[in-house]
Amino acid sequence: GAVVSQHPSRVICKSGTSVKIECRSLDFQATTMFWYRQFPKQSLMLMATSNEGSKATYEQGVEKDKFLINHASLTLSTLTVTSAHPEDSSFYICSARPTGGHTEAFFGQGTRLTVV
Amino acid sequence: GQNIDQPTEMTATEGAIVQINCTYQTSGFNGLFWYQQHAGEAPTFLSYNVLDGLEEKGRFSSFLSRSKGYSYLLLKELQMKDSASYLCAGMDSNYQLIWGAGTKLIIKP
């Protein structure tokens, strides 16, 4: 199947700093990528839908100024957690669907963010 | 509103069969997905159903009834490595995935 690479897999940062997470589709183009957050023992929560060349669409309750999303190319989307706080500690997962079809979504490996 | 319901947790014995049910309500329907997620890892794709009936793929099968808004994932010959959460997701008319909370499957020897 198609591969989505997410980096870094783990990151520890201090409160108040910013962290950037990259999501790359390695062998397909993805007009749309999705960013999820998952707290322990809970389901995936969609944070935002990232569209190449345009602004991301954020879900209700997600602060767009805190979670900056950039989808500059058909193979790369980034999520930047700005001014991180301990409550932002979570598992962040991106997914991408190949352009042109409503096929399965391919997931990145996830990023475990710990804010201390 | 849109909603996906599945049991929170199930327990089964190694070598046995288990069926995980999922009911869905979506605005429009473009298919039903099942994903497997081990603790601390990203979900991996298991199956996709858009037509009624049973899709078999090795030890795993998935069933869909669109008229009933119902799906199930059937796991046969259970192995210890099948212990994981199983996520049901419906795709709505905008091709957005609506996720269930996941069913944690515990396999006992």
Largest interface between protein chains, with number of residues from each side: A-B, 22 and 20 residues
What is the SS-derived class of chain A?
Answer: mainly beta
H/E element order of chain B? EEEEEEEEEEE
Biggest sheet of chain B: strands, sense, closure? 6 strands, mixed
Rounded Rg of chain A: 13 Å
* Main pleated sheet of chain A: 7 strands, mixed
Q: Structural class, from helix and strand content of chain B?
A: mainly beta
Distance between the termini of chain B: 40 Å
Shape of chain B: globular
Q: In percent, how helical is the residue content of chain A?
A: under 10%
Count of discrete alpha- or pi-helical segments spanning 4 or more residues of chain B: 0
User: What is the average per-residue confidence, as pLDDT of chain A, rounded to a whole number?
Assistant: 89
Query: What's the count of strands of chain A?
Result: 11
Helix content of chain B: under 10%
Overall residue-averaged pLDDT value of chain B: 93
The percentage of residues in β strands of chain A lies in: over 45%
Distance between the termini of chain A: 37 Å
**From the structure provided, what is the oligomeric state, counting identical versus distinct chains?**
heterodimer
Please provide the count of β strands of chain B: 11
Low-confidence stretches of chain A: none
How do the helices and strands line up, and which of them pair or pack?
The complex is a heterodimer of chains A (116) and B (109).
Chain A: E1 4-7, E2 10-13, E3 19-25, E4 32-38, E5 45-51, E6 57-58, E7 67-73, E8 76-81, E9 90-97, E10 106-107, E11 111-115
Parallel strand pairs in A: 2-11
Antiparallel strand pairs in A: 1-3, 3-8, 4-5, 4-9, 5-6, 7-8, 9-10, 9-11
Chain B: E1 3-5, E2 9-13, E3 18-25, E4 32-37, E5 44-49, E6 53-57, E7 60-65, E8 70-75, E9 84-91, E10 97-99, E11 103-108
Parallel strand pairs in B: 2-11
Antiparallel strand pairs in B: 1-3, 3-8, 4-5, 4-9, 6-7, 7-8, 9-10, 9-11
